[in-house]
Amino acid sequence: MASHKLNRTTFGDPNNAGNLMSLEEAHSLLNEWVPNERLRLHMKQVAANMKAWAIEKEGADEQTALKWELAGLLHDADWEKYPDDHCRIIIEELERRNIDPDVIRCIASHGPNYFGVEPVSKMDKMIYAIDELSGFIHAAALIRPTRYDGLEPKSVLKRLKTPSFAAQVNREEINDAVSRIDDVSLEGLIQFIIDHQKDIA
Ligand SMILES: [Fe+2]
């Protein structure tokens, strides 16, 4: 992917704090913008992991958990239709819909090396790490006859050390993302993701 620097530092309007969209609305946006079923699945998996992390690790209330979930669900919404303007289009759409700035900033920071926006909040940092790893773990599961059943972090770690496997996934970014989170190891996060995305269809 080429550089998609957003050249922005603020996202959304602080007056919209607490303005979220329903999951139904988010899913209908996805259905409209993302014909590719695999890409939709990727976003649903990231969303499930984000929501679970918010609730289980951050003690989030329902509204906060929905924020994390929505960021996961929508982070690549513009990727298929607007590859050259990926991230910018969905951000502007969410700004137009007056969505909570935390959600918009989180989406903007899901790829600091591409979009030039550094993750600041825990939600920002988690989407960066989960996005990278979720797709990789799914690829590692798909090549197994039993898929997620019996998939262990150590076999994912081994695949990460095999550069030819899912070669497009940048290992340095995974390490960078995980190093920004102080309460989980790479192995621990892999286990968390396996547990929370294995049943997402
Ligand atoms: Fe993604």
Give short descriptive properties of this protein.
201 residues; mainly alpha; Hypothetical protein af1432; 58% helix; binds fe (ii) ion
Explain how this protein is built.
It is built from 10 helices and no strands. It is globular. The model has no long low-confidence stretch (mean pLDDT 96). The chain is mostly helical and 201 residues long. It has a single domain (14-197), classed as Hypothetical protein af1432 (Orthogonal Bundle). The chain binds fe (ii) ion. Fe (ii) ion is lined by residues 42, 46, 75-76, 131.
Break the fold down into its secondary structure elements and pairings.
Blueprint lengths: L22 H11 L3 H22 L3 H13 L13 H9 L4 H8 L3 H4 L6 H21 L10 H8 L10 H9 L6 H12 L4
Helix pairs in contact: 1-3, 2-3, 2-7, 2-10, 3-5, 4-5, 5-7, 7-9, 7-10, 8-10
This protein binds fe (ii) ion.
